[in-house]
Specification:
The chain has 4 helices and no strands. By secondary structure, it is an all-alpha fold. The chain has one domain. The chain is flat, with a radius of gyration of 16 Å. The two termini are 14 Å apart. The mean pLDDT is 88.
Length: 122
């Protein structure tokens, strides 16, 4: 469980820093619209990973509470929420969808990198 906490903490810190740096660069070269999109994408990416790792440890760990039906319902709720967020962004053009996807991708790259680092150190 310690690796879970270390990985989550590292992802949150490095992901937030990388997202804010990318948003700052976007603010300089583009606009506030794109910078906000990158920040939202990064926040969605971090939230997605936190929820995902929590679900995986709940399924794998026998001492955790809640049945598989509850976990499936929570995961479906998360997917519907993210689908609604992306639908609203695309439908009403609230933010740049490319910026949101860029922020999400930054978190994905950091997640893969940190996962590989954890595997090498084990």
């Amino acid at each position: 469980m310690d690796q879970k906490k270390i990985l989550l903490r590292t992802l949150q810190i490095k992901g937030t820093i990388a997202t804010l740096i990318a948003a700052s660069i976007s603010l300089i070269f583009f606009s506030f619209h794109e910078a906000t999109g990158i920040i939202l994408g990064g926040a969605i990416g971090i939230l997605n990973f936190i929820i995902l790792i929590r679900f995986v440890y709940t399924i794998v760990s026998p001492e955790s509470g809640g049945g598989k039906g509850v976990i499936i319902f929570q995961y479906a709720t998360k997917l519907i929420l993210f689908l609604f967020i992306f639908f609203a962004i695309i439908k009403w053009q609230l933010l740049s969808i490319l910026a949101v996807l860029s922020g999400f991708t930054i978190i994905l790259i950091i997640t893969v990198y940190e996962g590989l680092q954890q595997m090498r150190s084990s």
